[in-house]
Design a protein that fits this description.
This protein is an alpha/beta fold. The chain folds into 2 domains: 6-198, 2-enoyl-CoA Hydratase, Chain A, domain 1 (Alpha-Beta Complex), CATH 3.90.226; 201-249, Lyase 2-enoyl-coa Hydratase, Chain  A, domain 2. Helices cover 47% and strands 16% of the residues. The chain has 12 helices and 10 strands. A 6-stranded mixed sheet has the order 1-2-3-5-7-10, with helices on both faces. The two termini are 30 Å apart. Bound molecules: octanoyl-coenzyme A. Octanoyl-coenzyme A (CO8) binds next to helix 2 and strand 6. This is enoyl-CoA hydratase. One of its GO terms (biological process) is fatty acid beta-oxidation. It comes from Paracoccus jeotgali. Belongs to the enoyl-CoA hydratase/isomerase family.
Length: 258
């Protein structure tokens, strides 16, 4: 499919999806979100993809939902069409790991998109924020829920009610991002992480993602049971035999996703 608001490159079993509306700091309009949903779905189904990276430009991962597109809409419009629900829920159905590589602004829907990925690596120039309050609204693609789980109630509440931005150092300290890297090296560092994930047994990677995500959805007791059952299930794979044999034989494992 031809994309106009994103680009997609696949190499070394990693799909790199770049948000590409430079004139609007990658603001998320319905066309971009629909293309992103399609690209994610295609990458998930593509045997040549084992990990997905979403990134933006150096100046902006995404500066939020497109204010121009939203400004004239009524309640009947946005509630009636359930604005962005379909496209933004797609990310929840993707089974392969998705890394957000954030440089510059990740604001509003941009921060929410990054948080919907499996983890975030950011550049030193990154700025995260939920400035919707300045527009007379609140976050609408998970900001109040996911930011609170990442950084706790106090910071999430302050950011949601004041619109203040969080810089990269605070984002790492607060657990919003897994790490901060020099801005010029963001993509090379993230692609190295993605390639490392792509080398693992895909069965184990899918199970690991599923188990960590389950911790957001259930009680500790149920989550522990879910994890244990997946752990047991992986003993039905050839990759478990290969991984453990390779360790004992002091060699690199040759995983075959079986
Ligand atoms: N929407 C549309 N256009 C935007 C957006 C945006 N979110 N952000 C920036 N742009 C455009 C600007 O209008 C400008 O365009 P033009 O050159 O045609 O005037 C261009 O991008 C460059 O922007 P600036 O000149 O403002 O660049 P600066 O470097 O001066 O400032 C900022 C950068 C601080 C990022 C500034 O652009 C800004 O504050 N942007 C808006 C941030 C914001 O409020 N984001 C939240 C949007 S609301 C939202 O995300 C809700 C999500 C939930 C939806 C739920 C649906 C169910």
């Amino acid at each position: 499919m031809a994309y106009h608001n994103i680009t997609v490159e696949i190499a070394d079993y990693v799909a790199l999806i770049r948000l590409n509306r430079p004139d609007a700091l990658n603001a998320l309009n319905s066309a971009l979100l629909a293309e992103l949903a399609t690209a994610l779905t295609e990458a998930d189904a593509n045997d040549k993809v084992r990990c997905i990276v979403i990134t933006g430009s150096e100046k902006a991962f995404a500066a939020g939902a497109d204010i121009k597109e939203m400004s004239e809409k009524s309640f009947v419009d946005v509630y009636g069409e359930d604005m962005f629900a379909d496209s933004t829920d797609t990310i929840l159905r993707i089974r392969k790991p998705i890394i957000a590589a954030v440089s510059g602004y990740a604001l509003g829907g941009g921060a929410e998109l990054a948080m919907a990925c499996d983890f975030i690596i950011c550049a030193e120039n990154a700025k995260f924020g939920q400035p919707e309050i300045n527009l007379g609204v609140i976050p609408g693609i998970g900001g109040t829920q996911r930011l609170t789980r990442f950084v706790g109630k106090s910071k999430a509440m302050e950011m949601t009610l004041t619109g203040r931005f969080m810089d990269a150092e605070e984002a790492e300290r607060s657990g919003l991002v897994s790490r901060v890297v020099p801005t010029a090296k963001l993509l090379s560092e993230v692609m190295a992480v993605a390639r490392k994930i792509a080398e693992k047994s895909q069965m184990a990677v899918l199970a690991g993602k599923e188990a960590v995500n389950r911790s957001y959805e259930t009680t500790l007791r149920e989550g522990l049971q879910f994890e244990r059952r997946l752990f047991h299930a992986l003993f039905a794979t050839e990759d478990q035999k290969e991984g453990m044999a390779a360790f004992l034989e002091k060699r690199e494992p040759q995983f075959r996703d079986r």
